[in-house]
Amino acid sequence: MAAPIDQLELRPPPPPCPARPDLLTRRVLLVLVLLTPGIPEFLTGSTSVTRALFDPAGFVINVLLDVGLYTTGALLIREAAARWNRGWATILVLGLAYGIVEEGLAVHTFFQSGGSPVGLFGSYGRLLGLNTVWATEFAFFHATFSIAIPLLIFDRLYPRLRGVPLLTPRSAAVCVGGILGVVLLGDAVFAAIDRPPLFWAIGLSALVLALLLIARRLPRELLAPVGGPPTASPRQLLLVGILPFAGWIPVSYVLAGSHVPAAATLAFVLASYLLPAAYAVRHLGTAENQPHQFAFLVGLLLPILCWSIVFGILIVPGLEVVGVGYIVFLLWLRRRRFADPPPSGIPPGGQVGETVPVPLGASGGRVGPPLPESARAVSAQNQ
Q: How many domains is the chain built from?
C-alpha cells in the first residue's frame, strides 16, 4: 500500500550521468582535433594551414596523420587517467612516453644527425647517436603542449565529462590502431633519415613501457596544488608559465652554438619545465583561483602565440591568422570557463543543473571531481 503524500520523503534527483557510448560525439571529437594537433602543429607552423589553399589533398593527408598521432594519443592518455582514477602527474608521465613514441620511434628526430628540424642539435649533445638535448626538450614539450594543455582546456570546455571515461572498447581499439599505424608508417617513411639503431629502438620501447607502469602507480595527489587560496598573483603565474617554451629560445640560438657543455644545457632545459611546475603546485591554490589558472595557461601559450604572429608576418603567411584565432578563443575561454562562478552556482554562460567547473587540483589531483556512484555503475557496465 502506497504511503500518504504527506509522509513521502523528498529526495534530490540523482546527479546527471550521460550514457558512456554517446560521450565521444562528433563535436567533442572535433574539439579534441582542434586542440591536440592545433597547438603543437598549427600554432608552430609545423603543419601549414595555407597548404589547404594550394595543396588541399596534401593538407588533408597531413591533418589525418596529425590526428592519428596527437588526437588518439591524447584520447588514450585521458582514458587511462580516468579509468585509473589518477591525476596530472600520470598525464604528464604518459605525455613523456607519447613524446618518445612520436619523435623517437615515428619521425626519428631523436637520432637525426643534421638538417631540418634538428639543426645544430644533430651534433650538439649527441651521445651514441642520440640527440640528448633535443630529445629531452621535445619529450617535455609534447607532454606539456601536445597532451596536458589540450586536456586541461578540454576539461574546462566540458566540465561534466571531467574524470569520465570517453572510449568504449571498440573506440579505444581504433585509437590504439591509429597511433600504431602512424608510428609504423612514419618509421617506414623516415627509415632513410637516421633510423635508430636496434639497441636504441629496443631501449626507447622499454622506456615507454616503464613510463606506462610508473604512470599507473603514481598517486593521484601528486602534483596537486597545495590547498587553499593562491599564494601568488596571476601576473606572477603568467610570467612563470612563459618559461618552458621561452627557455628553448636561448637554448636554440645561444647555448647550442657556444662552448657551453651539453650537460649544462640539458640541466637548463629540465629546469625550464620542472621549476614552473613546482611553482604552480606550491602557489596556484585550489580555492578562488580561476584567474590564476587562466594566467598560468596564458603564460604557457604566450610564447607560441607570439611566435605564430611574428613568423606569420615575416616568414609563413597565414600563420598569424592561426595565432590571432587562438587569442580570440582564449578570450572566449576566459569569459565562459575561467570566470569566477556567480553566487547562484551556475557557471557563466551555463544553465541550471550544469556542473560548475572545479578548480584544478581541488579534487586531490584527479582529472575532475570524484564520480557519483551512479556514474561509476554505468562506467563499470560499459567496460
A: 1
> Is residue 353 exposed (0-12), middle (13-18) or buried (19+ Cβ within 10 Å)?
exposed
In the block, which residue shows the cell 630529445?
135
The residue range of the domain holding 116 is 20-341+353-382
Q: In angstroms, rounded to a whole number, what is the distance separating the alpha carbons of residues 309 and 345? A: 38
Rounded to whole angstroms, how far apart are CA atoms 368 and 383? 20
Which of 14, 257, 282, 316 lies closest to 123 in space, CA to CA? Answer: 257
Is 104 within a domain? Answer: yes
Task: Assess if residue 66 is contained within a domain.
Answer: yes
Dihedral sign from CA coordinates of 92, 93, 98, 103 = positive
Show pLDDT as tens, one digit a residue, over the chain (383 residues).
Answer: 445 544 444 445 444 444 455 566 778 888 888 899 889 899 888 888 888 888 899 899 999 999 999 999 999 999 999 999 999 999 999 999 999 999 999 999 999 888 888 888 988 999 999 999 999 999 999 999 999 999 999 999 998 888 889 998 899 999 999 999 999 988 888 766 677 888 898 999 999 999 999 999 999 999 889 989 999 999 999 999 999 988 888 887 788 877 889 999 999 999 999 999 999 999 999 898 999 999 999 999 999 999 899 988 998 888 999 999 999 999 999 988 786 554 433 333 333 333 333 333 333 334 443 444 444 444 444 44
129: Cβ contacts below 8 Å, ≥ 6 apart? 111, 194, 196, 197, 200
- Joined together, the cell numbers standing for residue 332 give 572566449
Residue 226 lies in a domain: yes
Residue whose C-alpha cell reads 633519415 in the numeric block: 193
Q: Which pTM value belongs to this model?
A: 0.82
Q: Do 247 and 300 touch, CB atoms closer than 8 A?
A: no
- State how far the Cα of 382 lies from the Cα of 21, in Å rounded to an integer: 8
* 97 within 8 A of 205, measured Cβ to Cβ: no
